Amino acid sequence: MLLNRLLSNFVSSSRFSSSSAPRLLQIGDVLKRSRIFSHLDILEYSKLSHDSNPLHLDSEFARNAGFEDRIVHGMLVASLFPLIIASHFPGAVYVSQSLHFKLPVYNGDEIASEIQALNLRENKKRFIAKFSTRCYKNGELLVLDGEAMAILPTLAMEQGKSME
Fold first, then answer.
1. Which PANTHER family match (predicted)?
2. Number of Cβ atoms within 10 Å of the Cβ of 55
3. Closest-CA residue to 28 (of 156, 120, 147, 153)
4. Which of 2, 26, 92, 156 matches a 20 to 30 Å C-alpha distance to 49?
């Protein structure tokens, strides 16, 4: 249920391809999703992950630590990256992720996440893809960046998925 609700909260922020031919992922391609994390998302993630750090759950504690309010778990924000990959390439295997947390994300912030294909190589009828990963708050402030690696079953993107 949580997964279905999380998936339904994603809104594409790029244009749709009208071609019926499959679009193949190429170096330089950017795939995006946007999301606003709610207080309920934070509570559910905390419950699921057992991360009960008061910075995420207690406004007064977070303010006393120098934040504006409770912060969204960084790993919850980073979960946008494998979702983008899996939604475009069902059956993809997420292999690694480096993360650099730049700024806090708060309940209600609109987060635009994007991955950009940096390197693609074929290996045993599958593809190893290296992506840069970034999240922006309110369209302009970089809050998270890094790199990800995934094994893709194909370079053909799922029909109806978005790209930039």
1. HYDROXYACYL-THIOESTER DEHYDRATASE TYPE 2, MITOCHONDRIAL (PTHR43437:SF3), HYDROXYACYL-THIOESTER DEHYDRATASE TYPE 2, MITOCHONDRIAL-RELATED (PTHR43437)
2. 19
3. 120
4. 92
Q: Which two tokens stand for residue 22?
A: 């499959």
Closest CA to 148 of 160, 135, 137, 159: 135
Find the domain containing 96 and state its range. 2-13+25-36+73-163
> pLDDT tens digit string along 7-32?
334 333 333 444 566 789 999 999 99
Entry pTM: 0.82
Look at the chain and count its residues: 164
- Whether 146 is in a domain gets the answer yes
Burial zone of 35 (CB within 10 Å; 0-12 exposed, 13-18 middle, 19+ buried) = buried
Mean pLDDT of the residues in the chain: 87
101 within domain boundaries = yes
Q: Find how far residue 88's CA is from the centre of its chain.
A: 12
Rounded distance between C-alpha atoms, residue 38 and residue 20, angstroms = 36
Question: Where do runs of H (alpha helix) occur along the chain?
Answer: 2-8, 39-49, 54-57, 59-64, 74-78, 80-88
What's the rounded Cα separation, in Å, for the pair 105 and 65?
15
